[in-house]
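Filed under: proteins

Residues; backbone shape codes:
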Amino acid sequence: MTHPLSTKFREVAPASFALADPDRLEAALAEAAERGARAWPGVSVDAPAFVRFLAERLPSDADPVATLVDLRIEELYLCCACLAGSAPAIAELDRRFIADSARALGRFGANTQAREEALQLAREKLLANAPDAPPKLAQYSGRGALGGWIRVVVVRTALNTQRSEKRHVPRDDDLLATRIAEDSADPELQVMKAEYADTLAQAVAGAFRRLTSEQRNLLRLYVIDQLSLAELGKLHSVDASTISRWLTKIRARLLDEAQTELLQRYALRPSECASVMRLVRSDLHLSIARLLQTEPAGTVEV
């Protein structure tokens, strides 16, 4: 049996994928290309080009056949076509996903003109090649719904256009900013920070990577874009108290998983771990902001 698709796939895939069974991989890739074509009858993508596109978006430590099952293949197919410049694909993307995001902007009270301006800027950001950056759509990994991912891009684009006019007001409802003034002057914490800096950063980063794309998107809008609980509630069609509970659960999950990582991976004694976790809690907000700002393109769906 020949393997034309898996051969193209392996040209850009991590070396670890060479261990995948060639027959299974060929069948999985052929099925993926067929699924994409069926989903968008008026959109055509060269199958070898599509499988190369898929290979660039799979984690290097995953079983490619198993991972393909979990990806949103149809939406990746549309993105691949859009990035190749297909006019029918771009029209579908606009009709089904970008224009639909106008409703999210409407929840923030944006008028018609402001919505249209934000949508046009988002279209350019998603599809246009900039001198210093590829189209934002190239970052979509297929691990979450394309509609939700684009909605976040549109909302963040609208926020960025207003950023220079928006004054920062300290928020009493900042659930993640747990640092207190006396912590920064605590000599014990300063010694611990110097001793455990690398270990601490790795533990928090490991916990952060295990959050879902939806949880990281919520954190990005809250921590980086500084939407209030009420604004986030409007975006997600829930009340502010629900957003508050979601953020509390995310914070608790990060702390629990960071503690597990410290105990298991770094073999800290319980007494050491308790002391380091005090530092984790005091620096959690800053750690999250740093991770959101430095995470490589394509690993967070925003």
